[in-house]
Amino acid sequence: MPEKHMNEQSLIGAFEAPPQDAARAFRAALEALARPGSIHEITGGKAPAPMSEAAATLLLTLCDPETPLYLSGAHDTAEIRDWIAFQIGAPIVAPAEAMFALGTWEALLPVTEFPIGTAEYPDRSTTLIVETDALHQHGAQLTGPGIKTVASLSLPALDPFRMNAALFPLGLDFYFTSGTQIAGLPRSTQVSDMMETN
Amino acid sequence: MYVAVKGGERAIDNAHAWLAEERRGDPEVAELDVAQIREQLALAVNRVMTEGSLYDPDLAALAIKQSRGDLIEAIFLIRAYRTTLPRIGHSRPVETGVMACDRRVSATFKDVPGGQVLGATFDYTHRLLDFKLMAEGEVPEAAKADPRQEPTPHVTSFLNKEGLIQSEAQGEVSGEQTPPDLTREPLELPANRALRLQALTRGDEGFILSMAYSTQRGYGNSHAFVGELRIGRVAVEMDIPELGFAIEIGEVELTECETVNKFAGSKVEPPQFTRGYGLTFGQTERKAISMALVDRSLRSKELGVEVSNSPAHDEEFVLYHCDNIQATGFLEHIKLPHYVDFQSEMELVRKMRAEIAAGQAQDSAQEAAQ
Amino acid sequence: MSDYNFAYLDEQTKRMIRRAILKGIAVPGYQVPFASREMPMPYGWGTGGVQVSAACLMPEDTLKVIDQGADDTTNAVSIRKFFEKTAGIAVTEKTRAATVIQTRHRIPEEPLAEGQILVYQVPIPEPLRFLEPRETETRKMHALEEYGLMHVKLYEDIAKHGHIATSYAYPVKVEGRYVMDPSPIPKFDNPKMDMAAIQLFGAGREQRIYAVPPYTKVVSLDFEDHPFDPSKAEHPCDLCGAEHTYLDEVIVDDDGGRMFVCSDTDYCAERQALGHRGRLSPPETLAEEAAQ
């Protein structure tokens, strides 16, 4: 363990039963990404503020020393860095090297700095975990894989997600987290204004 | 009346029980213990360790016992066990230059510093069945000499001093670059040399041997000399960050082979010799030499040598087909039921035959009408 | 098996597989490379499917495993036992009761629902592999959406045989972008791939994972003048009378006598329990006993 005075908070907040808790959390994350617009409970991880339980749980489920992580804005604190160092071990990097990124929408802008994958390896793109105040099933209209007809989700913006979808099969993938809730938006989802489709 | 065949579960349990009996063989005959296999079938143990990527003679011997002597099955057991082990860290590159050599021969020089040490080899034995071994023959004690204390320099280093042999890229030799781990990352092509060497060490001895042999017979010609073959023990050291220095964590027996190949030179390079390299666990010299030939063959592009269509020049062909665990699994899976796919093929063939038959019937009807 | 982690794989391996699954969901039909582990069963026997299932299973799951549509084929039994031992989860033969279904070569007849995951075992994930053996080349072809070779092959079939001569592992195009191998299911099953459940594909030896999210467009490749035909044997099931299911042909006597029965054993048993009868059904009383 690093010798430097580590915040006590960094020692707590892991899963109680890691294999089982991570499995449940993964299924929530899978359903969220596979059914854009659906909102799921995801619990078990607790990180220092302002990180939500949903975001902490997602990081514990998907990240480890093999996944470079970018922390933006209010999420780039000494406490959160310590917590990640102790619980996850993910190296903290700049956007261009990030496999995952965490922060509020405003703090993560401009999203054009994150890798969108390559034509031969479109999977080598960043997954952004966007912390939001609340998640609702109204707002932008979503269509595409995972959606039977049309779905709705409270997105923080429209144009960046439209442009992202236009990059398909390249592009970024998003999770939105709030409290213990999670929703997903893969690059394959077409986003439009509610007014436009009505 | 048809009753669907049930009882897959019972069949499996019974098959396992029968297999266990067959493994044991005649109970009147004394059972082999793991130590006997480790000591008396050491070359089998070495192969299992090399292709299983796990240096543990006892576990390899256990795997051989459990697999009834089927070495590929034993390698499979070791591989499946190995993946369950946590990867705690990695050692420093071993220093084969300070190996305590039990055997060390060079085919390129009559004598070299450190000497030619024949060691325990089948090389000059006459392959006559020794019927004395049918009974438990006592072995007369072999003559002993004092082991050499000083390091034994690599033969190719003498050529290197003269610039007669191509130099290796520095990072590759010093181990400053952490090599990728084939067991932790998916194979991506083109592969770098460290990854290729890993794949070749793990690769099937028979496959690597045949690939190497093909280069000798002209399929991607590159005439190789055994610059040096050495077998012996080396220390394994690991850096401990908390201590700030490396500590020795154990010793392994290795076979190392460096081949020297003639290279006529290219537009940019004067004529010089090129290298192939093989490194394997235990005494496994056929594998190490084969590996060195295939390594050299796969380096053709980077060394600026003409690349032919020969299999041994084709990285993708060699790396995707050298692993016997992958190969045997996929090959043997055709024993599994495929009746659903076969059914769909039957339907298609029947349909096409019926259409042809209908077409012929129509033709002959027309002919008859005319 | 308490020496092993829940669902056998260690957590770091599961995280790696989970990340690959999520990227697969985000790019439907694209084959994500993953560092497949050596499993305690041979490559080619479902190691990819087993790793995907292991990364998905949670303690509350109910698992169904089928091979050739049947729950009692030996390899299905072996895989089901593996997860019973290592994950301690509930298992079932009922398609409807399962939350995770691992399959080899079939899609169940019963339409799958939201909340279910169908995990396919895949031997050769690359649909272009038999046209171009080199991975470096096929990867480029997918990148450039260069699928001409596949269409040429299918068209040559038609020119030569009057039919597309592929009856299983029939290639599909996913969401108008990637050509994908549906695994060696009979082409009869292809139309079912437009479904409400999540479909995950694991190829262990070839180190690839891919996915089809629910309600994703999956189109079997064809030509306007030769539309895709999901044909099957033109018989009803001899046990349950179903005319809309995929059938196994069973040779029943030395004279080559045959019967046709549903390949999906659960579906067939359920129909029989509901009173459906086929040409060779056992008498009512026996069927009732068998159902109990």
UniProtKB/TrEMBL annotation, chain A:
InterPro entries: PhnH-like_sp, Phosphonate_metab_PhnH. It comes from the Bacteria. It holds the Pfam family PhnH. GO terms for biological process: organic phosphonate metabolic process. It comes from Celeribacter halophilus. This is Alpha-D-ribose 1-methylphosphonate 5-triphosphate synthase subunit PhnH.
From TrEMBL, chain B:
It comes from the Bacteria. One of its GO terms (biological process) is organic phosphonate metabolic process. Pfam families: PhnI. This is Alpha-D-ribose 1-methylphosphonate 5-triphosphate synthase subunit PhnI.
Automatic annotation (TrEMBL), chain C:
It comes from the Bacteria. The keyword Lyase applies. Pfam families: PhnJ (PF06007). The keyword Chaperone does not apply. Its EC number is 4.7.1.1. GO terms for biological process: organic phosphonate catabolic process. Keywords: 4Fe-4S, Iron, Iron-sulfur, Lyase, Metal-binding, S-adenosyl-L-methionine. InterPro entries: PhnJ (IPR010306). It is an enzyme of class 4 (lyase). It catalyses: alpha-D-ribose 1-methylphosphonate 5-phosphate + AH2 + S-adenosyl-L-methionine = alpha-D-ribose 1,2-cyclic phosphate 5-phosphate + methane + 5'-deoxyadenosine + L-methionine + A + H(+). GO terms for molecular function: 4 iron, 4 sulfur cluster binding; alpha-D-ribose 1-methylphosphonate 5-phosphate C-P-lyase activity; metal ion binding. Catalyzes the breakage of the C-P bond in alpha-D-ribose 1-methylphosphonate 5-phosphate (PRPn) forming alpha-D-ribose. Belongs to the PhnJ family. This is Alpha-D-ribose 1-methylphosphonate 5-phosphate C-P lyase.
